[in-house]
Amino acid sequence: MLVSDLLRLDATALALIAHDVATVADADMDAPTPCAGWTVADLISHMNERHEAVIASISAPIDDHADNPRDDFARTAARWVVAMEQTGDVVNLPQRGPLATDTVLSVHFVDMLVHRWDLSRALSRSCPVPDRLTALALPIARSITAPGSVLNGPDGVYRPPVEPDRPLPVLDAIAALLGRDPHWERQREYR
Fold first, then answer.
1. What is the per-residue pLDDT across 119-130, written as a single tens digit (0 to 9) for each?
2. Nearest-angstrom CA–CA distance, 83 and 151
3. Alpha carbon of 134 to those of 2, 32, 79, 174: distances in Å?
4. Do the beta carbons of residue 54 and residue 91 sit within 8 Å?
5. Could you tell me the pTM of the whole model?
6. What is the pLDDT of residues 144-166, one digit of tens each?
7. Distance between CA atoms of 176 and 180, rounded to whole angstroms?
8. What are the φ and ψ backbone dihedral angles of 115, each rounded to 5 degrees?
9. 32: alpha, beta or left, given left = phi > 0 and alpha = psi -120 to 50?
10. Which residue from 68, 69, 75, 169 puts its CA 20 to 30 A from 46's CA?
């Protein structure tokens, strides 16, 4: 797949989650997520921080951040797309070193779909994703979480895949590959 096609896919996944982030209520920022020990605010902060760390390796960082990570997300997502348009064939990732841009975009595309799943589960919302996106994301998720992948294992960025106990919808299966409990639900007592 061409880098320009991957950038369009990635930008689409970012637009989906940016919409969801923008609609998070203040009261839900402390809600737990499927990411162990993280609240919704932690999840959004994580995405902002990781985006900005990669962006800073390509263009100038910004210093004016909002008090609420939700309020920075749309700008950070837009900066990510611009940075990916400006980079060449390789992105120099903080703490990981150089990685092919098409690999960065592929992984990021899957990450954004799964973080959107995380957010949707935390807020007890539906998480509709076009079938064409999940069809493209599933083989990428299988690849990046396969045994021997540099993103998997003790020094990797993902928890071990969760083996489903029954067939799952595609997005749930992708989340399970990235170490999420596909049956995780927000506890009623939080509300």
1. 999 999 999 999
2. 22
3. 18, 25, 24, 8
4. yes
5. 0.93
6. 998 878 777 666 778 888 898 88
7. 5
8. -65, -30
9. beta
10. 169
